[in-house]
Amino acid sequence: MTSLAVGVDIGGTGIKGAIVDVATGELTTDRIKKATPEGGKPHDIVAVAKSILDELAPAADVPVGVCFPAIVRDGKTMSAANVSKKWIGFEAEALFEKELGRSIHFVNDADAAGFAEQQFGAAKGKDGLVVVTTLGTGIGTALINDGVLIVNSELGHLEIDGHDAETKASFAAKERDELSWKHWAKRLQKYYSTLEALLSPELFVVGGGVSKHHEEFLPLLDLQADIIPATLRNNAGIIGAATLASRSK
Question: Scanning 118, 178, 202, 239, which has its CA 20 to 30 A from the CA of 7?
Answer without folding.
Answer: 202
